[in-house]
Amino acid sequence: MDNIKIGIDFGTTNTSVAYMKYNNIFSNFSPECFDLDNGATLRSAITYRDENNFWIGDDALQHSYKYPNRYIDSLKRQVVNDTLKHRCFGSKMESDILADFFSSVMDRLKLQIPYGCVVDGVAIGVPIGFKDRDKELYIRSLVKSEIYEDYETASRNTMFVSEPIAAVLNYNVSLQDDKRVLVFDFGGGTLDLVIMDMKNIRKSNEISMHDVISKKGKLDLGGNDFDRAILENIVVEKYGMRNLKKSLGINQLIDILKVQEGIALMDEIRRAKEDLTKYEFTTIAFEKGKLKMNLEVTREEYEYAIAPYLEDIENLVDECLSYAGLNPNDIDIVVLSGGSSLTPAVQKLLFDIFGVHKVKIDPGNTMTCISRGLALRAHDPEANRYNDILEHSYGVMMKDEDGNDKAIEVVLNKGMKINDINEEDHYCEFELTTKAKEKNVFRVKIYEDSEEIGEAHIPLTTKMINSKFKLYFTVDENKTRLELHIYDLNWKDKVEVPLEYRFIEISK
């Protein structure tokens, strides 16, 4: 059997899956999206009837009215916000909920996978700033969904790629020369910006290494916030807070998705938002249960409601440029991805900063460009290589003489080029505490920013007791984990780090 790899864009609002399809006429591969619910996309939602029966996508929304307490929308944002754990019930844990979603997605793909092929690898998109614990949750979910047979296989064959980088990998196939590109990836839950130098672009299988210059992201800004702005600043203003809560039978507006009418209202608001990307006004006409409304909403009202978010977007663009030491004139192309990037006010903001001619808008590809880029990356990593930068700092906890935590010493700084990491320039030195010398192992706590992500237990021999040590990290070729190295400076010998503690998964 032939093996294929798939790219999964598991978005806050929608999910898309692609693979590299072979074209017999042109004798080459090109990214192709699978058919899911609404063409190439599927709503990232799930509704449970009970622990063993559930619906996903639009079916989940339709059944949510009967099971509002078992309806889970915006799955990825709930992972990012660490709120999915509050939706667990019975024996269902976070990884089980995601596994149910992924397994149901795979069921829809089975008849579309080329005959005689099996999926043996996944590239999955992640927003900038995505945490290690969340990547671990994805891997466990992929195993439970039976995409992989075991954890080791999943860890080896799963590739995590920043979503905006996936978008530009898909876009670069159409470029004919080197360009400095800013990717503006604005989806339902997150906003990610990446500036990249795209090098020697000819064909998708001849791309030399691209260079990531700057990354900025907001894990709490997306189209969902625009929906909320319409609710709070327009619907509430016109319908009345008291009337709305009374009609919905809730005490707090935050509970709107816990009742049938609230779920239906938020879906109608989302539809109205999409209308306002094309028209100057729309109507929120709604009647369900005790809730009845017929409100006209203009684009001007909508843009006033989201004005604070537009300011946040502009500030993030400025930060991304400033971090790279660039100004808007230094950018050749601005590539848009994500459904929220179609918002006219967002596009005007980018036009004003960069100029209309630089901003590339492709409404037909906006929702699927990330999954296509992921498929490209998974299919041939060597042809789509890029010199990425670290999204977090990494260091170790230094202790006082008695072995108490003192301070984190940073070894690798956020923003550092991954290919520039080396032991000569990026290391720290330490000696054993009195307490450690009394034991047969010493421990090294490893931190991502201020969060502990690993603890290595190093066997202590007699000759090492009074030594001074050098600690450094390298990054493996897939750039998804750190490898810990410790060198005994007194004996000029490398300390053996047990395999189970040697590798630490990192956020990319």
Task: Briefly say what this structure is.
The protein is 30% helix and 32% strand. The chain is α+β, with helices and mostly antiparallel strands. It folds into three domains: 2-173 and 367-386, ATPase, nucleotide binding domain (Nucleotidyltransferase, domain 5), CATH 3.30.420.40; 223-305, Actin, Chain A, domain 4, CATH 3.90.640.10; 394-505, Substrate Binding Domain Of DNAk, Chain A, domain 1 (Sandwich), CATH 2.60.34.
Keywords:
single chain; Actin, Chain A, domain 4; Substrate Binding Domain Of DNAk, Chain A, domain 1; 15 helices; alpha+beta; 3 domains; 6-stranded mixed beta sheet; Nucleotidyltransferase, domain 5; globular; 30% helix; 26 strands; 508 residues
